[in-house]
Amino acid sequence: MNFSxxxxxxxxxxxxxxxIDPDIxxxxxxxxxxxxxxxxxxxxxxxxxxxxxxSWRAFNYMCCAAYRLQNVTRRQLTIPPRxxxxxxxxxxxxxxxxxxxxxxxxxxxxxAGVMIxxxxxxxxxxxxxxxxxxxxxxxxxxxxSSDPIETCKNFYSDTTLQIDMAFNIFFLLYFGLRFIAxxxxxxxxxxxxxxxxxxxxxxxxxSVYLNRTWLGLRFLRALRLLQFSEILQFVNILKxxxxxxxxxxxxxxxxxxxxxxxxxxxxxxxxxxxADFSNSVSLNYWECVYLLMVTMSTVGYGDICAKTTLxxxxxxxxxxxxxxxxxxxxPEIIELMGNRKKYGGxxxxxxxxxxxxxxGHITLESVSYFLKDFLHKDRDDVNVExxxxxxxxxxxxxxxxxxxxxxxxxxxxxxxxxxNDLSRVKMEEADGCVILANKYCQDADIEDAxxxxxxxxxxxxxxxxxxxIQVLAHHNKAHLLNIPSWSAAxxxxxxxxxxxxxxFIAQSCLAPGFSSLMANLFSMRSTIEIDEDxxxxxxxxxxxxxxxTEKLSYSFAGLSFPRVSEICYQKLNLLLIAVQVSxxxxxxxxxxxxxxxxxxxxxxxxxxxxxxxxxxxxxxVWCARCHIDxxxxxxxxxxxxxxxxxxxxSLSKHLTAFNGVNTSSNNSAKIIKQSFDEVAKEDMRYxxxxxxxxxxxxxxxxxxxxxxxCAQLNLQGHIVVCLPETPLLGLRNFVMxxxxxxxxxxxxxxxxxxxxxxxxxKEWETxxxxxxxxxxxxxxxxxxxxxxxxxxxxDMCVILCxxxxxxxxxxxxxxxxxxxxxxxxxxxxxxxSLNIKSMRFPGTRAVSGYSIPMITELVNDSNVQFLDQxxxxxPETELYLTQPFACGTAFAIxxxxxxxxxxxxxxxxxxxxxxxxxxxxTDDLEEILAEGGILLPGPSNDSTLANRDRCRVAQLALFDxxxxxxxxxxxxxxxxxxxxQQYNLLCFGIYRFRDVxxxxxxxxxxxxxxxxxxxxxxxxxxxxxxxxxxxxxxxxNGTTSNSAACSSxxxxxxxxxxxxxxxxxxxxxxxxxxxxxxVPLSS
Length: 1083
Description:
six-stranded parallel beta sheet, alpha/beta, Alpha-Beta Plaits, transport, Rossmann fold, 5 domains, 26 strands, ion channel
């Protein structure tokens, strides 16, 4: 006997002891599908009839109520008052009862509406739960579809039936809530979701009663997929119209596909009723799914087909609908999926790593400049990821740039004006947001307005977000102050390109070459070494120096600024130019070369010039006990000495006490008061802030000269400004540094504006209060006008460019359309520069135009190649490597891009640069300018004079004065020490003749800048030294009554020749080449 025979023999033997009901044994042979179907139909039709009857009763009630209302009104007019009171009291009681009933029903209806509404948390949870349970019931159907259509199952032993029963009880309760909350019961009864419940919920209860299941119409649960997009919107997963449409199409396609497959599975496995179910075919559910797919796609392999009449009848109609759906939905789904943004998605933050968001004007040029400076190797461990967001996807070049920096850069397509996009880039978690401006736009106001709107959107989304924004026009800064959450204390910074650009050019009028020197300081560039002893070698050696901040060591506490600066330079090879100290009344104050008036406190923040952040850390770890004799800078590391170790007595003999009043020089309040009477003899008038010279407002016609009047003035040592025909330039930003109050009135250089008077008229209201300002109507391209203003006798000729693209288009004949040539934007500046250089002036100090000190502003960096015809600069050479930039004769707005990175890493760096460039712009002045008003006069009192007490940029010549002995073979380190110890002058660069290192037969008068030379750098007598000079009260007096007091207060005042040299330093640059170059070499 084999195993099968033994098994069946055992079963037969067990039946002898177990009594089996014959009805159960024959269960599979009996069909009761009609009971399941009848339960659904009775529920649906019976409920529909009841709703119709209720609606008819309600209609009759409303009609009768209107009739009764008419009768009541008629009775009130006819019956006696006493009898009417009884009727009215009865009607009032009835109406009160009806109102209570209506109020109770309304409350229940409102509660049910809240429970199923997705507007509340409870409603969202309930809706999502119903959807998930519906999908669970559909999964149970998939599992049961492997069994016959109708099977006998015991509820107490079948797990899937128990789970399905629990799901359907929940569906029944949810159906009741929906019914109560529905306003139109009839429409609710005919909804798709209601139909699904009718044909899926009642059969489950019949299954429990009959101990058998029927697959029946349970496949209708797949129609719940139609709500998939709504569910995803409720949980804030779908937010865009494109994604919602895609999910809608996919859910409709899937629900119809799965529902149709369920119907084919039912009729094919059941058979035709009129054929006594004898033609049934055994197909599983997934074969039916396959059948409908090949049918909709018109492939029709024929391996599976419908055999029953009902199945074929259904397929006839399904082919029409399914084919239409497949032909329309599938291509659209593919198109939507193909159009999905490549740079969509959301930013995923990394623990322990910050991220910075950059938006605004995102182009290859702007991104390249930003990343080159931001990710420079000299920065100490930049653990910040840069996230760019822009509405336009990057082109191939920009995309390649992002890929090269893929470890630190990400790009997302979107707009910061959209809160959803701000959420994608995690704006609330960002360390800051940078908004770049389009420096080459045609309308600065439109560009600034767009960026200010970006600030408003970001601040509205995250008020504590730190913003660094570039604006083009100075007057647009006022709009940022109107944003309530804008706070400089939180790190919000605005970089006004026009203000800084014109400020740099203005300072170059006082110290030629200063614009290039400062631009190199706040830009991150690597040192380029050249073996050949040429001017490029010395220039590039200083290019690698940058500006850094670091807290000073506790060993410097109690020392004066000059002493600390001397120690940093001699012992640490660092140049300390400014410190940030605490104000007596609270807050922080930035002091540039404050002199000996203050003593530094522990933890003071210093501003250094060095080649890397690693070098600057020496100032933080330097110890007066351990490192005083250390010569190897690499050995300067943090020691274990306590913080109270100070510099010994031999090194701190120059200490002075902090008086708590003066903040920028070593002059006491007493000296200020004593010298005020003498200083008041000048024609001194200052604005209300005391930071700038002021004069009585005058009309433009009063300052406008004719060519004859201008020639009769015999102007010398003045500044000529060549203006283009362009809209507002913001000339006030150029004039203000030249009218700073730390100059004496007689030191102010006359400014002559040469250009179209109609354009000057637009800005004259902002210039009317500044003294020594003249206007000559004309054109910078006219040599007659240039000779009339004495361009050959000026201290500086400034050529400003036009930022308008008008006229900068040429015709592309090959393509037949217009195209822009960016090089033409600088055509007026280049033509003016070449026009002046080609002029001849016999009998004057400037024999030719090449000897005239000049600085030209350019829009496009590449146009610098056209300024000097004798240089060898390649057109692809970076701006800072070109000869005009190195000589300080060219300036482009692109150099200011580095300020964004410098401001992000240290917001005080922008304050330092603005203080040095603008001549002393304060918060009070910004508020005055924000109101759109002009500068108002202020009293000439002690507080006004105290505001004048601040250092300024100057150039000292070495061919004469107290430093003449160092000019012939001396060392820069000796010059730095002597100037700092004896005169409180802080030297930070040299302006040297180009051909000094390699003499030629015909030397040029061009000079180049050398930034922060090394202590052993040799000097020549023709050098001009960049320095930060203290303000002097006594120099401008014209009297000597207080000379003793002034000399004791400020040693530099004791030598009047030093100030004479400083005063005439700019004139030295215009000296004839053969005089200014050869004489120092022979001395």
